[in-house]
Amino acid sequence: MIAELNSLIAHSRRVTQFAFGMDRPTAVPSGLSNWTARGFDDELLMTFARARPKAILLQLLMLMPILTISAFSPPILLIPFGAFLIGLGLAASLILADYWPKFKQLTAKRLFLIFEALQGTGWALISQASPTPDFIPDMAFLVFIPVALGGSSLVFSSAIRGALGFHLLPILIGDFIALGLSSGRSTPDALYLSIALIGFFLYLAGRITETTLDHLTIRAEKDALIADLEQAKAHSDEARRRAEELNLAKSRFLATMSHELRTPLNAILGFSEVMEAELLGRHRVKAYRIYARDIHESGQMLLGIIDEVLDLSRIEAGRYTLEEQICQLAQSVSECAHLLQLRAHSRGVIMMMTVDPELEPIVADERALRQITLNLLSNAIKFTPSGGEISILVGRNPLGGQFIQVTDTGPGIPAHEIPIILESFGRGSLAVKTAEQGSGLGLPIVRGLVAMHGGEFSIQSREGEGTSVTITLPEHRVIRSSAQASIIETHDRVAA
Ligand code: ADP
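Above: inputs. Below: predicted complex with adenosine-5'-diphosphate.
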């Protein structure tokens, strides 16, 4: 019970503080700068300055009947004095509404509050001194004035904390003084009612200000979030642009270097071949012939790597041009398999091929297709241990495209290594451990060539079970029978 009472007291204290602008500094969402906090006050002041003049008409409408009534009563000095204070406060408020940005924020706010208090004092004098003719109940002005003022100011002045408080405070003080003096003119009931009404309006004003601040806070947080997002996007765009530039520069460098290396390498290959074949005379030391063969073999390996580097850099730099022609996928694949059959056999690996007999011709770069197939098959042969199997499947997919699938029963690739091996020069731990030859360029080249054909590349692998790589060429590369007939017909006509 006591705890509930305490929380009620704390809440009502907070609301009172709100109403009179004495609470904590403006709530600033975490992460927002001081600029935003100042921005809040500026915004609230601006809202107040814009709305305040609109309340003038209402105040005048309220003032008119009271002045009219008092004109018919014996003169009471307090009424015109009160009206003068109200007019002064209103006029000053109006002028300040135009010129407040020229003042310091706090000064402008204080001036507004003083002018509110000035008007409030005027109303307090009128409400206490107004004559009430017989046809109007005694308490009419005492109750009517706070209700009308509170209601209208609620709408117009809740943007500044304390504005309503300063407006109604003089009336409240007037009520208390009247209660204290227990002047015979006003009934205590009317005074109590007036005090209760003022309390109610102060409470409402506090809540409205609280809601307005929450609203502004949420809006500021949203704006800050949008700004953060825009900044992050700008950074990522810039980073991407720089990465692309660097990648292009790297590819150009590699392409140039590879080209420069090929020329001396060709000389090494040519001369080592001549020396191995002893074309210009026998070596006196036999080992020289073996050395010459080693030089030739190493040179060829190096040439293979340089060719791969050159191909990949051309692909990445967008300088690889496809030489498209009509070809049979199955035929290209089986020629490559045939080429590597001996190597597979020597390593004790069985190679099997299954082909869809009704495969239509496709439009593709045949050299690229061979390179794709050779890379996939040589990987499968390289990594499959003796006694293992490699199956090659060439067929059609449900979307009308054609695919090559190379599956082996080798050691497989750990899932976390797949992104690595798809990068240039990326090699799996197994290849490094078993010291298998390779540059880590085969798969990136395959991916690049497949992408240039508009196809798809996928790799499925399970450690200890094997690897399956599938490349798919899209449906639009397949020449349908009717299209094929018309192509042949056109060729015939051209020939004729
Ligand atoms: P490399 O010239 O090193 O073979 P690749 O790009 O062709 O370059 O392959 C990259 C790595 O992917 C290899 O080093 C190997 O670790 C892994 N890899 C590729 N194919 C297979 C496969 N069929 N079985 C197991 N590992 C494979």
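Residues 188-276 form the longest helix (89 residues).
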